[in-house]
Amino acid sequence: MTFVVTTPSFSGPVQLLLQLISGHEMDVLDVALAPIVDEFVALLRDESVTIDVNDLSEFLLIAAILLEMKSQSLLPGRDSTEPDEEFVGWEERDVLLARLLELRTYSSLADALVSLFERAARAYPRIRGIDDGFVIEPPDLLAGVSTAQLAMAYLRGIEEKPVPVVRLNHVTVDAVSVSETVVSLSQRLPALGRLSFRSLIAGFSTRIEVIVHFLALLELCKLGHISLGQGATFGEVQIQWLDVPVGLDIGRVDTYEG
């Protein structure tokens, strides 16, 4: 990324500014470095802009060079060495550093190869095949097996295998009908008066009986024969038979068997 600077005496890329000053086409004393640094710092703080590490290091290098050149120009008794003569060896230095990194890479690779060679030197491969006269005989799989055992194995292989049967005689399923329970409750509830659902199902041993009785109560409530109430949250469900002249229509009861 090329960083563009704007000063009263120059506007353009910072690399071009360094070239103009190094070529004596612009005086470093005419360039204000503080606005250049402020613009770059503001660019760094901008979260929407992503700056590469190489671009950042290049700007720091150029800023350091400009700062050193301006410091030497402002200090009394400065050295008469020209800036281009002072920084003439920088390009050669960069080339030497790049070659040094390449040599380090080759050195690391050489160390890795030496380690692999040392590990391979511990193995001794076989350089000859099977000796002459060496005969490989497969084992006799029928050694020790008599003809009677073979006959018994054949009979066991051809005999008919019994078909596995799942016996359910130990499982008893009681079919409970909601319609039958509705008829039973319609005969019992008028004489019981007001009671709770817990007292109604007292003595039931299976869960299906509780479920069917609850569904039957919902059917009676839907038909308008009973009223269901609950005084508090998670409280007892109270059941009360309503004296209505309408007869019970079993045909309207939803069929359910469990």
Please give a structural write-up:
The strands form two sheets. This protein has a three-stranded antiparallel sheet. The protein has a two-stranded antiparallel ribbon with strand order 1-2. The protein contains nine helices and five strands. The model has no long low-confidence stretch (mean pLDDT 79). The two termini are 78 Å apart. It has helices at residues 14-22, 33-45, 53-74, 83-86, 90-120, 147-158, 178-192, 197-200, 207-223, and strands spanning 4-6, 11-13, 195-196, 226-230, 237-241. Strand 4 (226-230) and strand 5 form a beta hairpin. By secondary structure, the protein is mainly alpha-helical. Helix 7 packs across helix 9. Among the domains are: 4-91, no CATH class; 178-252, Arc Repressor Mutant, subunit A (Orthogonal Bundle), CATH 1.10.10.580.
State the end-to-end distance. 78 Å
Q: Regions with pLDDT < 50 over 5+ consecutive residues?
A: none
Oligomeric form: single chain
For the secondary structure, the number of strands is 5
Assign a percent range to the helix content.
40-55%
Please, what is the average pLDDT? 79
Percent range for β-strand residues: 5-15%
Rg over CA atoms, rounded to whole Å, is 51 Å
The SSE order reads: EEHHHHHHHEHHEE
* Major sheet details: 3 strands, antiparallel
How many helices? The count is 9
Q: Strand pairing plus helix content: what structural class? A: mainly alpha
Shape category: flat
Biggest sheet: strand arrangement: 3-5-4
